[in-house]
Amino acid sequence: MTRHGKNCTAGAVYTYYEKKKDTAASGYGTQTVRLSKDAVKDFDCCCLSLQPCKDPVVTPDGYIFEKEAILEYILHQKREIARQMKAYEKQKNEKKTEMEELSKAAKESKMKVFLDKEMSIISKPLNPFTRKAESSGAAGVAEAGSSSQQSGEEKNKQLPSFWIPSLTPEAKSTQVKKPDKMVYCPMSRRPLKMKDLISVKFTAVDDKVDRVGLINRQDRYVCAVTRDMLGNSVPCAVLRPSGAVVTLECVEKLIKKDMTDPISGDKLTEKDIIVLQREKQSREPISSIKAGQMNNIVYWKGPSE
């Protein structure tokens, strides 16, 4: 086989394989790929640590977290809010002090202007022994010296300093906004409180197997009512009173008929049935950049024949 035959450039058909290969190499076009099993988080894993939960809790939006991980996250957010609040209060006090100093300086300047006007009203006796030329020359020299001194001071104020960070032209004081005191869920971005966390109780396939052996198994948990196997492809829900995990099929066909928790016997409402959020296992787009739209490039097709 010749070298030219390996390139396959003599074919009149642009095959699907060549199109995929050129799309991946150029970066243009919509690229889709099927996610493997390792790329999808299991339904019983923590949304923060991505590991199987030892003491799972669920939020009202249906996201499962390890209790230790979510409590540490909430405490970290509260510390960060307290730090930002201190910075905001410090900036507020500095602005208050600055405004007080400006008002004080404005009052002093008004007082000085008033005193200067009052002093100019009083007539001063002239000294007959001083010459008019000498007095006018001395006044001119004094005025020239004062004007040169003021221009030098103004020039020093205007000149930037590139070796001192606080005096560079770009050095501007950043405005600290008042922080929001509410802690938000890292997944749903909705307000989250510690009292909103609900303990989850998974029903293991075999009660005799320890936790390490249970994690190594692919099928770990079953529905608390129907004993159906749970997995990423099975929609599940948590019952708030008992914390039991059941399938949505069980909820629709059995639990919603009398709205009673089959584990604890408590009455249920719609809010007591929390649907667990799960990862999707479908073809997900990696990038949605269509051909000819990257960087606003417009291609010229040439003159029409």
List the main descriptive attributes of the protein structure presented here.
alpha+beta; three-stranded antiparallel sheet; 10 strands; 10% strand; 38% helix; single chain
Topology readout:
Layout: H1 3-7, H2 16-26, E1 31-34, E2 56-58, E3 64-66, H3 67-121, H4 132-158, E4 198-199, E5 203-204, H5 211-216, E6 221-222, E7 236-239, E8 245-247, H6 248-258, E9 273-275, E10 283-287
Antiparallel strand pairs: 1-10, 2-3, 2-4, 5-6, 7-8, 7-9
Order of helices and strands: HHEEEHHEEHEEEHEE
Give a count of the beta strands, DSSP E runs of length 2 or more.
Answer: 10
- Uncertain segments: 281-305
Largest sheet: 3 strands, antiparallel
Amino-to-carboxy terminus distance:
39 Å
The strands making up the biggest β-sheet line up spatially as: 3-2-4
Rg, Cα atoms, Å? 38 Å
Total DSSP helices: 6
What's the assembly state of these chains?
A: single chain
Structural class: alpha+beta
Helix content: 25-40%
DSSP strand (E) fraction? 5-15%
Q: What would the principal axes of the Cα set say about the shape?
A: elongated
| Rounded mean pLDDT score | 76
Q: Mind explaining what this structure looks like?
A:
This protein is of the alpha+beta class. 38% of the residues lie in helices and 10% in strands. The chain contains six helices and ten strands, in the order H-H-E-E-E-H-H-E-E-H-E-E-E-H-E-E. The protein has helices at 3-7, 16-26, 67-121, 132-158, 211-216, 248-258, and strands at residues 31-34, 56-58, 64-66, 198-199, 203-204, 221-222, 236-239, 245-247, 273-275, 283-287. A three-stranded antiparallel sheet has the order 3-2-4. It has a three-stranded antiparallel sheet with strand order 8-7-9. A two-stranded antiparallel sheet has the order 1-10. Strand 2 and strand 3 form a beta hairpin. It starts with a helix and ends in an 18-residue tail after the last strand.
